[in-house]
Records
---
Amino acid sequence: MNIHVVAVAVSVAIFLFVIELVRRRRLTFKYAVGWLMVSAGAIFFAVFYRLLFACAAFLGFELPSNFIFFALFCVFITLSLLLTVFLCQQNSRNDVMAQKIALLEFELKELKKKMNVE
Amino acid sequence: MKSLNPKILVIVPAFNECGNIGRTVAEIRRHAPQAGILVIDDGSADETAQEACQAGAMVVSLPFNLGIGAAVQTGFQYAQRRGYDVAVQIDGDGQHDAAFLDQVTAPVLRLEADMVVGSRFLVKTGGFRSTFGRRMGIGFFVYLINALTGVKVSDPTSGYRAYNQRMIALFSGYYPHDFPEPEAIVVAQQAGARIVELPVVMRAREAGSSSIRYFKTLYYMAKVTLAILLHMIRQKN
């Protein structure tokens, strides 16, 4: 029975930690949503673990723990893919900004030169 | 000819090309005194920018290294902003002989081509033709590009190119990033560009080392192939 207490405690802790991060403005709502949903799901299944077992049995997992590992695996793969998409977006924005800055810097130098000449 | 005095911009991407870039710029000035020369210093750690500036080029310095594709694209963006009629791309490492500048730009000026690729393999004799391993790789791209787009180019990795305003506008908005030359041909073809190839003589590098190191040839091939294939399935907007 203790394992369920631990499971509930850990998932609640993660949930509260995410909320705290938002409160301290370390995490914006946009990125907190995913984590909140995942930890809310964890709390739900930690409390109603019989439902989790039923799901595992229905899907044909021999052990409920296998199901949990599999589900976690899927969650993290999805999450890291989403993070890669985000990273990629930031990367291309960075490139565009670097190009703009370089061109603007060039034009600025050009303008300064012109002004000094006149 | 489009106008009596077409504005030509020579774009020279350079990353740590101290020792080469000054000579390259001087050579371009000698062969094309009427053209603007824009060196894109791609976050070099050495004196590339100063050397290019002293040699008489305009220098745009990227704040950090973005890679050849983004560097060349910066040149296209500049050309578009300033309304250049023709852009020529020449490598900053001294491999490309500026004596061919007029020939490479001619088809664009005569409105016969949107994009001209200078090929070292169309030359009957002489010049630098790369190592055996790389020639094999190049041969593979020749085949791949032909199979995918129907375009026949003999030197798809050549960075000696000329573009008209239409291509400048296209590539200002989108230009492949990592090893862009073969993919750029596919991009241009899909945009309906008329691509012409002309013979140019290339030299071996004078100083420094190529950004594509010998043992990395295979990795380069796999990566570019994947990039081209991914480009084919990309959504067009």
---
Amino acid sequence: MLRQIWIVSALNFRSLKSRFWQSMVIVVGLAATVGVMLSMLSVSTGMRQAYYASGDPNRAIVVTKGVEQEPQSSITRAQAPLIAVAPGIAKDKDGKPLADRALMTSVPLLRKDGSKGFTTMRGLSEKGLGVRPEIKIAAGRMFQAGRRELIAGVGAQMMFRHMQIGDKVILPDGEWPIVGIYKTGDQLEGQLLGDTETLVTALHKPVYTTMLVRLASPASLDTFKKALTVNPALSVDVVRHSDWYKRVGDQNTFALALLGYVVGTVMAIGALFGCLNTMYSAVSNRGREIATLRALGYGAFPVAVSVILEAMLLSITGALIGAAIAWALYDGKLDLFGNVVFHLSVSPAQIELGVIWAAAVAMVGGLFPSIRAAKRPVVEALRAV
Amino acid sequence: MKYFPLVWASIMRKPTRAILTLLSVMLAFTLFGLTIGMNATFAKVKEDARDDRMFVFARFGSAVPIALERQIESMPGVERVASSSVIGGYIQDPKNRTFVVMMDENIPKVFPEYPITPQQWQLIHNDRQGVLVSQMQAERWHLKVGDTVVIVSPAVKKLDGSNSWTFKVAAVTPDMAIFGQGYMFGNYDYMDKARVLSDQGKTGQFRVKVREASKTPEITEQIINRYANSSTPLDSITEKVAFDVSTGTGMDIASVDRDVALAGMFMVLFLTANGLAQAVRERFAEFATLKTIGFSDNGVIALVFAEAALPCVLGAGLGIGLAAVISNVMPHFLPPGQGLPIPTMTVMVFVWAFLSAALVAFMSAGLPALRLKQMDIATALSGR
């Protein structure tokens, strides 16, 4: 049986050359479908990855009860110390809890093309680096607590003007110099960092935004959470940092991903009709060969399978071409959406998705023609020649 | 027109092929309709936006004191200032996200184009808890006039410690292009008086109407300079810029849309060109017969073009129709609060679709036409 499938398929593939342009309909159709879908998904995937990478299972974020995005949260100055002394937080060498009072605000900046854009400015308190060890200075130096200076992420530096060391950012109390450039490998790279308390004064903000703590161990989340939720002075949600960013990432990229899939589906259905078209005419062109094989004793099943295999070969080739184009054009490219700086991504998982998409199209697009090929009475087919 | 039966017969020679081609073309044009229709929505929003109106907001993302409203209004060249704040939250379940824009009494004067009558504005003025709900939002949350709706807003706290904001539906009003997911308008006074003390007297942003659009840049600069050293430095952006989709997202979505539509067209071009070339090859002898009985070169080519154009134009029409249907039902299937811009099938979308269809047909007919022109009738008739 397998041998028969192999022989029939080999025969088909060898005759592909004579049906080159017609077969290209499937290849081009799937290349366009998968290329477009993966290009669109590169935005949502890249953005989601940037969010996911920002989370850490060893950290917990404390936000106002019920809020869904960090900027909506507010932690008062009275609440912050209560949170910092709760059990479950890892301690620094000096015995102090690794808790960071974070402040977030958006700053208007000029994009590289001169248009107006915004990014997030984040305040780190004295234990900030202990909580977020992923912040590495790539050039210049760290800002000093109490001084009006900032450090800029490598992403921000690439997306916005005036982000070099020595450049100044206008804040309410004057110009703050950028003294360093940092890397984190996540979404924080698109932001600016400064000292929380100095920013609080400059921005006249009476409250912090969130608290981020390093947990003593991933399992101590429950202890920490319980301590905070039973405290009547606090009305907060405690979420594992990785879970928080997973939710925020999914939520903020949902519409974009949906758009990609809708476009991908519509195009795939269009390509499917093209595939059906090509395979039907391939089957009818090869009526004589198929009938001859059947007369020689080949079964209907190998003939049917060979038709599907041919459709598969063509559409997966197309999908790989499309994926390769999307990958070459977009993978790794730095981009900005809203105020999130991230790298576009055409990951192996996305390419796999494209191939699955193509295989599905080929399956359906090959199935009906294959049934026709297999069912056609041998005698009639031979007579028609 | 009298050749229509001939063209029709040629197409229907292979009904499966004809139908599959038509469906394929239709799908590509559905995509075309959705993407170019989305661009039409962006264009409409931008067109409705005005150069003589701007947003004025806190430069570093906090609330602005409402007292500045009168100060800005007294600046030379400024006609009127209104303010709006947003209560963002959800209805019952955090998944049901929505928002209410809390408007002050000047909003109707700054936005005379809103499809809301003075009587309707008066309703929320008389009853501070009143809310104007757009058709789309009313359908989504099953609201009618007189209903009570509670918005839970984690970010906006009330004086009594809760964050549930109760509204009464005062009227259901028509939708607007700029609020793609519909809107709800409430009364700013309700929000201000019920809020925690530290937040009272503050608003989200000002909407400034200037007397002459040409003076907008100057006035913007004056406003920014005047408050640069205050406790709330301000920033400003004109409606035209703010409502440009690339401003909000930093991405040129319109050109992405065009590229997607183009990819679809490329797919269709390949498909029709191939199908047509095949059909002409199969019926080569028949075309020779047509020429023999007196059809001119151009006559035959016109027939081939018509054979390509018919499925393209028909497919374009059906595709845009399907896109229109999808655009109409789309809002009902999206999870609330997760906005995708809803495409609009404007006349321009139809025009572009038909032009593209004609171009695809024209390009598909190119090569076969050349072959027919150069054919040697005797050879073709002999079937060699």
